[in-house]
Structure formats: structure tokens, C-alpha cells
Amino acid sequence: MARRMNRYDEDDRNVAAGILAGVIGGLVGTWAMSEFQAMWSKQVSRDHDPDTASAGGRHDARDWQERVEGQNSNELAAHAVAEHTINRPLTREELEIAAPAMHYAFGAAMGALYGGLHETSRLVRGMGGSGWGTAVWAGADGIAMPLLGLSQPKSEYPLETHAQSYAAHVVFGVTTEVVRRGVRALLSRQ
User: Fold this and answer.
1) pTM for the structure as a whole
2) Which domain holds residue 52?
3) Does residue 106 contact residue 34 with C-beta atoms inside 8 Å?
4) Looking at the domain assignment, is residue 169 inside a domain?
5) Residue 50: which of 140, 159, 168 has the closest Cα?
6) What digits encode the pLDDT tens for the residues 23-44?
7) Which of 21, 24, 33, 173 stands the most exposed, by the fewest C-beta atoms within 10 Å?
8) Contact (CB, 8 A) for 102 and 108
9) Does residue 7 lie in a domain region?
10) How many domains does the chain have?
């Protein structure tokens, strides 16, 4: 009997497969989020060049933050890691790799968490990709980034910036879910 790809089967629960599918989904979701951010930024600021705004270009998805704050949390996080590991700040050339790597690593980690929880939590299965994207936006962008000093408090941002950040995270979540579901279905057949 053929199973529908989106149907949850209690007998097929496999956290490791869910995590792997989530990592792949999170990586693709991060790419989709970055592309979405670049398109939005281009529309709201015709003179804004997403390939030169930050060291990571369009692949670190923080154009909206740079427009408002003049800084990029992926770059700040990469510098913080470098200070604690190699005892110096990164050069612009190093940031070209490190800033997007921070963003993709975080996206993969959030995808892994989502994929693992999707296997075990009815709440997470019920929230789906858009709910997961909203949760990541609220938790990471709204709470963790300001607490870690990687961004200003969200009360400092104009409405358009909130909308862009929120919409990009929904793109991340929905893409992560679509890819996770497809990969998970492939892994179930193995």
C-alpha cells in the first residue's frame, strides 16, 4: 500500500533520518531565505547592491539589518568565533566565507532540530514549515540576537524591516519543510 508523503506513520518514526532530512532542508531553506532577502532588498532600495553590502554578499541574508543598523549579525558572530579561536578579527576576505558559513550552519542546525522534533512531537508536526519559520524568527531574531549583542532590540526597527525579516523566515521554514518531507520520504523507502 502506497503511503502519502506528508502522512505521519508512527511505525516509521526515525529521529536520525528526521535530523538528516532536516539538515538538508535547513540548508536549502537558508539558501531560499537568502535569495528572498536579496530580492526584497533590491526592491526596497534600488541603489542597494546585495553583492557588496556585506562581506558574504547575498548569502548571509542580513541586508535588512545592514540598512537599519549598519552592521550584520553573521559577521559579528563570525568575528566573535574568530576572537575565541584564532585570537584575532577576520579580514574582509575571510568574512566572505565565514559570515555565510555562520548563516548556513545556523540554518542547518535549525533544520536538524526541526527534523528531529518532527519525528517525535505532534506540536511541531502541527505547526508545519510556516510555524517553524515563525518560531525561528521570534526566538533567534527577536530574542537571541539582541541578547547576544548581535542586533539592536526589535523595537528599534521600522515596520518594513520586521516584515522583511518575518517573511524571509517563513520562506526558510516552508522551504525547510518541503525539502525535509521529500528527503524523509526517500529515506523511508530505503
Assistant:
1) 0.84
2) 14-189
3) no
4) yes
5) 168
6) 999 999 999 998 998 888 777 7
7) 24
8) no
9) no
10) 1
